[in-house]
Amino acid sequence: MKFLGLVAVYLIGSIPVGFVISRIGGGGDIRGKGSGTSGATNVLRTMGPLALAPKAIVPALVVWLVLAAAFRYVSLASIVGCVVMAIGVWLFGYPHVYVAAAACAAVLIVWRHHANVKRLLSGTESRLGQRAPAA
To answer: Are the C-beta atoms of residues 12 and 109 closer than 8 Å to each other?
Structure first.
């Protein structure tokens, strides 16, 4: 039963939410606009905040919001938010399989943001509210 749950969680997590929100919201294929990714930042920049507000609920929302508001780097907030989530799963004593899944997800998210980390370190990362250069 746990295996089926893990498969279900994997399949749900593989849904490109930004792409789906963009299509439903009439924005077309988000991957052809802005930065060319289907992430929340690109959806927010190209479609506006109303496209994300009712649908973008994540477990680490408070951490994400505080970091995004304080530093205006969505990539930094996303990276820290996923790491905080993984640590929280471990600290709250969830089963090892959940800890492993959260840790793997955090590693994948941080890896996916490797270009953002390079830009953060070099001081060239776009801040929230700034227009991203065309793809």
So the answer is: no
Domain membership flag for residue 134: no
Cα separation, 68 vs 76, whole angstroms: 8
Residue 83 lies in a domain: yes
Tokens of 79: 């990276």
Question: CA 30 to CA 68: how far, in whole Å?
Answer: 22
Enclosing domain of residue 98: 58-125
Query: And the tokens for 134?
Result: 């065309």
**Crossing angle of helices 61-71 and 74-91, rounded to 10°:** 150
Q: Which residue, chain included where needed, has tokens 């690109």?
A: 42
pTM over 0.70: no
Give domain status of residue 2, yes or no.
yes
Please say whether the beta carbons of 64 and 81 come within 8 A: yes
Same domain, 22 and 51: yes
- Quick: pLDDT tens for 57-86: 345 567 777 888 888 888 998 898 888 778
Encoded tokens for 35: 């930065």
Please count the structural domains in the chain. 2
